[in-house]
Design brief:
Belongs to the type I cytokine receptor family. Type 5 subfamily. The protein is built from 5 helices and 23 strands. With 381 residues, the chain is α+β, with helices and mostly antiparallel strands. Bound molecules: 2-acetamido-2-deoxy-beta-D-glucopyranose (NAG) (6 copies). One 2-acetamido-2-deoxy-beta-D-glucopyranose binds next to strand 6 and strand 7.
């Protein structure tokens, strides 16, 4: 019994070994086409049920017995693809891509970012074990259509090696919800340079750009509005930081969900900045540059005119006060130094030279004051 089990186990085992080209093998020349992602072979003889396996994933059925399609096959990481035929029992495998002999020559630390709404930038470093003549090239492969987009604008280091790439208008090659395989291939006269890849949906690698705020405002309200620009993300929340300049201490933070406007009551003159958050991909933009809005400059003019008129009124009041003071002083003086001619009134017509009379009287008694002279005059009459 054990011998039978052993025989059963050993029989297929013999065929798994990729020995030299077996002239009777039903499947020959197994290969991977990296552009179409098809694992294909040359078929000979009458075979049934061909299936393919990548690494240890579940097997997939071959199309028309002629190829297997692997959408997410890596162009850079050596992967084991196995093909199995049910009848006659047969199996073979390949590694694709072939493992490189200088793994340290591949580009390192590849990272890509969408920023400033339209721009895609990738950067990498030359591999530490890369030969001196190494050159790198980048392409994007559309995850759905498999279309490839080669880089047109490279950044180079001091040696002229490409270490970055920029797509100025990424929305021309990609729409919403698109994902790309970013691949940096390497070439050198001295060694076979492996490639480096990352797979990312663009929505995940976007550095959000905070929107521009515009405002319409008057004494009572400031209506702020903004337009969020992004080709790859849609659901945003906003954070506004508002500083009313009067007082300058209190900073007000407002969260605006989904809307792209905000009404601020009693705005006066204020400064505002905004940042945007995307919850699903956990993206957060920088703060925008602060913008200052002077709401209701008429009120400022109004207060200014009010101030000047107040000053005018104050001036007038001061003038009045001064005038009053002068008048009072004048009347006091009048009271202290009463006009002498009036005092001689009771003396009446008896004197032919009114004005001279008191002085003549006083001359009679120079030591006495005016009042006494008066009395004396009255007595004399
Ligand atoms: C291939 O094999 C199947 C059974 O395995 C058989 O029915 C069929 O006739 C064969 N065809 C040829 C062309 O030999
Ligand atoms: C299968 O193969 C036949 C003959 O080679 C061909 O006519 C047919 O189009 C193929 N079908 C597919 C889905 O490739
Ligand atoms: C590839 O996978 C097959 C089994 O599917 C295994 O027999 C073979 O050893 C593997 N090759 C490598 C290089 O790992
Ligand atoms: C890649 O990044 C790691 C971690 O930041 C760093 O240690 C390494 O030196 C970088 N590689 C190159 C070639 O710059
Ligand atoms: C925002 O507005 C400023 C000037 O008003 C302009 O220079 C800038 O390009 C605008 N930015 C965006 C993203 O619209
Ligand atoms: C100020 O603007 C708001 C909204 O735009 C409006 O409802 C309100 O009537 C305006 N107030 C004045 C005093 O103009």
């Amino acid at each position: 019994m054990a011998a039978l089990w052993l025989a059963m186990l050993l029989t297929p085992a013999c065929c798994l070994l990729p020995t030299g080209p077996d002239p009777n093998a039903p499947i020959k020349n197994l290969r991977m086409d990296p552009e179409t992602k098809r694992l294909t072979w040359d078929l000979s003889g009458n075979v049934t049920r061909i299936s393919c396996t990548r690494e240890s994933r579940p097997p997939v059925r071959a199309v028309n017995n002629s190829y297997c399609f692997f959408a997410w096959s890596s162009p850079c990481k050596a992967t084991n693809y196995t093909v199995t035929v049910t009848h006659p029992p047969f199996s073979t495998w390949i590694l694709f891509p072939e493992p490189g002999d200088t793994p340290g020559a591949a580009a390192e630390n590849l990272s890509c970012r969408v920023h400033d709404v339209d721009v895609l930038t990738c950067a990498w470093a030359a591999g530490r074990a890369a030969p001196r003549d190494v050159q790198y090239e980048l392409y994007l492969e559309d995850g759905k259509t498999l279309a490839r987009h080669r880089c047109a604008r490279y950044n180079t280091d001091a040696r002229g090696t490409h270490v970055g790439c920029r797509f100025d208008d990424i929305s021309r090659v990609s729409g919403y919800l698109q994902a790309f395989l970013f691949v940096v291939t390497g070439s050198s006269g001295a060694a076979r340079v492996p490639c480096t890849e990352i797979f990312k949906p663009l929505c995940e690698i976007e550095k959000l750009t905070p929107p521009n705020i515009t405002a319409e405002c008057n004494q009572t309200h400031a209506f702020m509005e903004w337009k969020m620009l992004s080709h790859f993300n849609r659901d945003f929340n906003y954070e506004l930081q508002i500083q009313k300049s009067a007082g300058a201490a209190a900073m007000e933070t407002v969260n605006v969900k989904e809307h792209t406007s905000f009404m601020l009551p009693n705005p006066g003159s204020y400064t505002v900045r905004i940042r945007v958050r995307e919850e699903f991909n956990r993206l957060l933009s920088e703060w925008s540059a602060p913008r200052r809005f002077v709401c209701d400059p008429e009120e400022d003019a109004h207060t200014r005119s009010l101030r000047t008129s107040l000053l005018a009124v104050l001036g007038a009041l001061l003038a009045l006060l001064l005038a009053l003071l002068v008048c009072r002083r004048f009347s006091l003086m009048q009271r202290l130094l009463p006009p002498i001619p009036r005092m001689k009134d009771p003396i009446g017509d008896d004197f032919p030279h009114d004005k001279l009379m008191p002085w003549e009287a006083s001359r009679e008694d120079a030591e006495e004051d005016c009042a006494v002279a008066e009395v004396q005059l009255a007595k004399e009459t």
